[in-house]
């Protein structure tokens, strides 16, 4: 059972509860599992909907005033609740939780097997337990659990790709550079990451570089393989990540421009070679494209001659 919270407003969606309540959905799910409370669906999303005082969209206001909203699909339930302000205390969070499950209970179907009284008492007992707990320490524990589970899931995805025999029929469509590095801004590697990705992409497309089932390649850069792997989750199969590691990334801003170019190019190359190794791509075409792009980028420097 996956229970999660989303915070929404007009024109925005997806943010979660603030720390130390970030993993409250997982905590509830674990408690239900321990108490053997089972639902006929695999996912419960609790949406917290805000209405800013300055909001002028009348349709949104009308929809907001009709909340709560309940939707039940084949394997999931979504409950949207009206919220006046962000959660600040455990009591605030449980106000949302009780409100959501009251709606779920009110919509219970004849064939749904969960015991409503046991559900209510389990939530009440959980709130009492958490009142005496160190919520920040608990959040850190669950954060680590989530991190390790994510890394392992992404590792298994790579193993599945390694074992796949899907024919390479898809022409590459896009190549992008992404990074997850502490204390770096949105344009940390700008403008070289975009320029070099576009140049290499043109070369690969011209050479009919083929891919197995996906069309988009994303280079995921971090300061360790494990950190990059953590951020390399792919919920959809039309793209893959290539891992690239840049340990001394804090030195980048003070480098000479030619050295910055070299770093960015090598990171893209590292990520593409990672994808090629996992998915057994045509390394001859890849190497040719990279060599051509490298020569064009660095031809005015004597940098290549020193390698």
Protein described:
It is a single chain. This protein has 307 residues and is an alpha/beta fold. The chain has 9 helices and 10 strands. Strands 2-1-3-5-4 form a 5-stranded mixed β-sheet, covered by helices on one side. Helix 3 runs antiparallel to helix 4 (116-131), helix 6 crosses helix 8 and helix 6 packs across helix 9. It is elongated.
* Annotation, overall tally of beta strands: 10
Task: Describe the largest sheet.
Answer: 5 strands, mixed
**Mean pLDDT value:** 92
Q: Helical stretch count?
A: 9
Helix/strand class: alpha/beta
**Rg from alpha-carbon coordinates:** 24 Å
This entry's quaternary arrangement is: single chain
Along the chain, the helix and strand elements come as EEHEHEEHHHEEHEEHEHH
As laid out across the biggest beta sheet, the strand order is 2-1-3-5-4
Strand content: 15-25%
First-residue to last-residue Cα separation: 54 Å
């Amino acid at each position: 059972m996956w229970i999660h919270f989303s915070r929404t407003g007009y024109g925005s969606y997806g943010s979660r509860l603030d720390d130390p309540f970030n993993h409250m959905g997982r905590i509830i799910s674990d408690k239900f599992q321990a108490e053997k409370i089972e639902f006929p669906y695999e996912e419960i999303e609790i949406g917290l909907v805000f209405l800013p005082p300055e909001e002028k969209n009348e349709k949104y206001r009308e929809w907001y005033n009709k909340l709560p909203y309940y939707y039940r699909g084949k394997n999931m339930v979504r409950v949207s609740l009206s919220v006046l302000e962000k959660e600040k205390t455990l009591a605030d969070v449980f106000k949302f939780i009780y409100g959501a499950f009251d709606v779920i209970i009110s919509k219970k179907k004849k064939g749904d097997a969960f015991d409503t009284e046991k559900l209510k008492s389990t939530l009440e007992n959980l709130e009492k337990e958490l009142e005496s707990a160190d919520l920040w320490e608990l959040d850190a524990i669950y954060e680590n659990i989530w991190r390790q589970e994510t890394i392992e899931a992404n590792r298994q995805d790579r193993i599945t790709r390694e074992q796949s025999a899907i024919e390479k029929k898809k022409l590459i469509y896009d190549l992008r550079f992404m990074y997850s590095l502490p204390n770096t801004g949105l344009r940390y590697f700008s403008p070289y990451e975009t320029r070099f990705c576009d140049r290499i992409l043109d070369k690969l497309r011209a050479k009919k570089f083929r891919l197995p089932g996906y069309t988009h390649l994303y280079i995921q850069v971090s300061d360790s393989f494990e950190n990059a792997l953590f951020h390399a989750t792919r919920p959809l199969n039309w793209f893959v990540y290539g891992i690239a590691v840049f340990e001394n990334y804090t030195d980048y801003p003070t480098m000479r421009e030619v050295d910055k170019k070299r770093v960015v190019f090598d990171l893209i190359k590292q990520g593409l070679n990672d994808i090629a190794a996992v998915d057994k791509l045509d390394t001859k075409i890849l190497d040719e494209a990279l060599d051509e792009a490298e020569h064009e980028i660095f031809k005015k420097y004597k940098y290549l001659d020193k390698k």
